Amino acid sequence: MSLIKRGATNKNILTGVFFEAIFFGLLLYLLSQKDVSIVWPLTALGFIITSLAARIFLKEEISSVRWAGICLIVLGAGLVTWSAKQKENEPEEQSPAPANYSLL
What we know:
The chain is mostly helical. The protein contains five helices and no strands.
């Protein structure tokens, strides 16, 4: 019970829960306004924000390989978003008229 009480009163944990709740609230709002194929890739920005926060506030060392991985993730998310936008801009193909094979 003591562990739960310490966790429930820890300032860092409560701050993390607060920001996570804000994130989910914004995510739900954005998903209600836009297509999931546009909104969901934006969550990849969390990798950048988290890594920068770890570097700045916690003084963590982040290797160049890890930064390269983060860049690949963000690039992939950008390609998904770009392809969704391209699909929206494509003109719709018209289906051919149905053939009338009746003898009458």
